[in-house]
Structure formats: C-alpha cells, structure tokens
Amino acid sequence: MVLPLPIHPQDSLLTLDTSKLPLIRDVLPGVHVYPCFLDAENGVWVLRVLFEPGVTLPKHFHTGAVHLYTMTGSWHYVEYPEQPQTAGSYLYEPGGSIHQLHVPESNTEVTDTFMMVTGANINFDENDEFMNVMDAGWIEMMIREAAKAQGIVPRYIKPAVGAGYADE
Description:
Helices cover about 10% and strands about 40% of the residues. It has one helix spanning about 135-150; strands at about 25-30, 30-40, 45-50, 60, 65-70, 75, 85, 90-95, 100, 100, 110-120, 120-125, 130-135, 155-160, 165. The chain is globular. The termini are far apart.
C-alpha cells in the first residue's frame, strides 16, 4: 500500500515548551495564560491557565466540549462543590453544560491547568443576564492586548494556510 501524500507538507514539528515562554499575566484578573493553540476559524482554543486563589469566573454555557486537566492546586464548580478537581484530575465537559469555575481562597498555590475548548463560552453576570461571548477569537484578542501591555510578543500555534506560530 502506498502512503497518501500529505495535504499540508510538514518539515518540522510545531511544538511549544510553556516552561520557556513568558506567562501572560492577568488576561482576566487573577488569570494568567500560556496560549498554546488559537484557531478562531474553527473555534478551538488550547491554553495552559494558572488561576490565583479566590478567582471565580462568570457563569457560562458551553457551545462545545471542554477537556481540562489540573496539574496543581484545586478548583470546583460553584454548582458542584463536593466534586473538587485536584492535581491529576481530568475533566470532560460536553457541549451544553452550564457552570461557574471557582478556585478556593484557601488554596496555598496557583491552580495550574491545561485545557482544550471547542466552540464558545456564553458568559452571564450574577443576575444570569448575558454578558459576552468568549471564543477563540476573543481569547486571542485578550491575550494580545495583555501581552502588548506587558511588553510581550506571545508565541502560540495559529493554523492558517500552512500552520505556523503567531509571532512569525
């Protein structure tokens, strides 16, 4: 059998070592990000996110699935306090889920996570009124704004006609 010809020829791997990249601080208050992969066209965002103790994100509705791995620290959904996510926890969320992420104030360290999200988060305020849509394009805009304010040129994988890095 003959191997198929690649649609997108690749002469090197696209890889990132987040331990060698600058952390983009306070993309949202207390939320620090290493962007890994941002694809606004297909609605995919992959991030390493560090949450400070006490951070609570807005309640949100997911239009797509989420895969989230907790490396250090702990967090839980306000709706499920009896199910804390701790170091080593992997969580799958189907599209259509609604919840609010909370990092306990009692945490003694940042909570370090790795997530892959498809689709968007539809965010709501404390009165359950629509606030905004957070998708790969919005995340990219917020990361670029925060990075620029910090004098950082963010490096992440950005697919296009022939995938590459955002800083090239």
